[in-house]
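Hi team,

Filling in the usual template for the complex we talked about on Friday. All components are listed, including any nucleic acid strands or ligand strings, so the model treats them as one assembly.

SUBMITTER: L.P.
PURPOSE: interface mapping
COMPONENTS: two
RESIDUES: 553
SEQUENCES:
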Amino acid sequence: MTDFSLSELLIAACAENWRGVGEVMAFGAGPLPRLGANLAKKSFNPALMTTDGECFYTTEPIGPGRRSDPANVEGWSPYDRTFSTLWGGKRVAMVGPVQMDRFGQANISAIGDHAKPKVALVGARGFPGNSVHHRNSFFFQAHNKRAFVEGEVDYVCMAGYNPARWINDRAPLGLELGIIVTNLCVMDFGGPDHQIRVVSLHPGVTFEEVQENTGFPLAKASDTISETPAPTAEQLALIAVLDPNNVRAAVFKDNPPGRRD
Amino acid sequence: MLDKRMTVDEIVGQLSDGMTIGIGGWATRRKPMALIRAIARSSLKDLTVAAYGGPDFGLLAATGKVRKFIFAFASLDQIPNEPHFKNARQAGLPVFEVDEGMFHWGLRAAAMRMPFLPTRIGDGTSLLDQPELSKRVTSPFDDGETFVAMPPIRLDAALLHVHRADQQGNTLTLSPDPFFDELIGRAADKVYVTTEKLVATPNLDMVNNLRFNILERAQINGVAEVPYGAHPTSAAPDYQLDLGHLKTYAASATSPEEWANYRARFVDVSDADYLAAVGGPEQIAALKTPSY
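RESULT (copied from the run log):
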């Protein structure tokens, strides 16, 4: 049996966000989603467009903490063009919110009262626009009730499946929430009325553990929830090439294995 | 020949209390920081400040210049949260929070002298709870879709940092991403630029650089030559951001004493003393390209 780390398991799970999405701009926020996009490009979706994180599309994907070689640059993506691209729907993202609620609404703006936050975060950034124009998936490094909150998130930066917030009760045109990859499981929005459901459990994790760490009731994709697929030897070899500085080993404390003892 | 040359302090003298000021650049890239420090040293107050925020936000917040921010984020990129902005927000400093693309849309509305531009952005989010985004507009066509009406972000003045300029206000913005400086300029009644180098018009080599000329000179009201005027943010390709200094700056948000120390060393000083304090031109020119 091949050994793999939790980070490598999650990179392979994140990559699935870009399966079958065609020739679009891929954006993965944070090292593991970014490596997931790069892995998708190097394996099952070579048409993906990835950037160096600044403003260049590169032919070979650029991993976290690395700079692009000018010879590898194939296109230009200044922010103005990034907005044009995403408003046209030609982008698929995976982002890392601070909070998410049962509707899939996400928060990166403020914890507590928006007028005088207990913790001021970075701000809504491009979340509102992203959420009504293209598919978005999510990554949570720590699956707990502070992340998956009981009520509504403190400030809704990203539209979710909450008709009470939709203009004229109509779903925003481009609203499409994909998967949620956490340190415990993979979830999606495929339950009744888009209820969040557990699709696969990471090796050694139980549904009960996931539910105990989530502030709202979860559905199950099936009576017997499958195990999150281990990265293949080919995927592990690609990940090693895509992340030569081993940034992935520093994401979780002590770089735990993908299979719990 | 037109002569729009000014000093940084003369530019600050054109601004007044209560103005809405737009600042160019993006987070830690191409911010007119020498001009921001000059505002920080001035008696200006009650400013509404609009930008893709970085240390410009933090310095103005920490020096008590701001009544309100119009923003989508405030970040030091490699340091995700702008620490002085964070302190100010947690103390209750008011904001009008928008999406990044919506910010661009509001600037465009102002630039076009439109009362609003329609957008889907904001639908389904808390942004619409703000009074500025309370208005809707319905398509007059068969689709009948209802949109958010994004009001104009009108600016009394815009502050931009460019790489080259002549005395008439012809400019070159050479960085790989021009961001939204053009729209910030067009949304403003007055535009003041700091430039790395002031050159004679022929030396702009405009025929070969025309795509770097993002605003015509009729939009530019004042030009100040300030080498390294974007430090500690980048003015690539001339120089890169100074992550070491940004860490020093970020650490100054941890206590009033740390801030007083930072301010005395790096804000309440002349441009020449600032440059010396941060290591001098050679050190800035040698800064390494960051990764994102």
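MY TAKE: The first strand of chain B starts at residue 20 and ends at 23. Chain B has two domains: 8-96+153-241, 117-151.

Thanks, L.
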